[in-house]
Design a protein that fits this description.
This protein has two domains: about 1-90, Resolvase, N-terminal catalytic domain (Rossmann fold), CATH 3.40.50.1390; about 105-210, Putative Large Serine Recombinase, Chain B, Domain 2 (Hect, E3 ligase catalytic domain fold). About 45% of the residues lie in helices and about 10% in strands. The chain has helices spanning about 1-5, 20-25, 30-40, 60-90, 115-130, 135-145, 160-165, 190-205; strands spanning about 15-20, 45-50, 55, 105, 115, 175, 180-185.
Length: about 220
């Protein structure tokens, strides 16, 4: 029903979307605003009989505009609160800040990380090939894929997911949030000094000096 309303093949067959109450069609304000954007782009009107809103009238458009502005304000305030909360936790050196366990690790059921040994060995190989064997990421990806070593999701390695592994201080036992880096309470896969060497080497391979800003760990 609802999905068919916005199907490109069906959208041209109606001009007005009529509902009993606004919260009957979307309880999430972001989804409701997205729907209103679609209606606006399609030059279609919205009518809520209970709320007495009709966007074909000036007062209806004004009311909807105010509702959208309030929803946007609430969304931005929620985002600001989330950001400040995460930053405060980072500055206090909190534990894991709500993310999936990266390749090489699994959650231990106690809010921390433990090693997945076969994946951890792959991470060590990636770092070794990059810094000791002086390989490019394309060659590293070829070596891993040719021997059947894939990512956790079973995808081939490439320079993009390899860059994520090489850039992530979690493998040196550290967590980070934006520019804040702190020691985590979990085992590291590579030594912090080794991680720093990789960051400096990666920075040296970047042609544009403006982008040479490696994230280094204080050891």
């Amino acid at each position: 029903g609802y999905q068919r309303l916005f199907d490109p093949e069906f959208r041209g067959e109606w001009d007005v979307l009529v509902v009993m109450k606004m919260d009957r069609i979307h309880r999430n304000s972001r989804n409701f605003m997205d729907m209103m954007d679609l209606l606006k782009k399609g030059h279609q009107q919205f009518v809520s009989t209970y709320d007495r809103i009709d966007t074909s009238t000036a007062i209806g458009r004004f009311t909807m505009d105010m509702i959208q502005r309030i929803a946007q304000l609430e969304s931005e305030q929620t985002g600001e609160r989330t950001y400040m909360g995460m930053r405060e936790k980072a500055e206090e050196g909190a534990g894991i800040l709500g993310f999936n366990a990266p390749f090489g690790y699994a959650f231990d059921g106690k809010g921390s990380l433990e090693l997945v040994e076969d994946e951890a060995d792959t991470v060590r190989d990636i770092y070794r090939m990059y810094i000791d064997d002086v390989m490019t990421m394309d060659i590293i990806a070829y070596n891993l894929n040719s021997r059947g070593t894939l990512t956790r999701k079973g995808n081939p390695w490439n320079k993009f997911n390899l860059r994520t592994v090489l850039h992530n201080p979690i493998y040196a036992g550290y967590l980070h949030w934006e520019e804040i880096v702190w020691k985590g309470d979990f085992p590291n896969i590579v030594e912090p000094e080794y991680f720093n060497r990789v960051q400096l080497e990666m920075a040296s391979r970047i042609r544009n000096p403006k982008h040479r800003n490696p994230l280094l760990i204080e050891v």
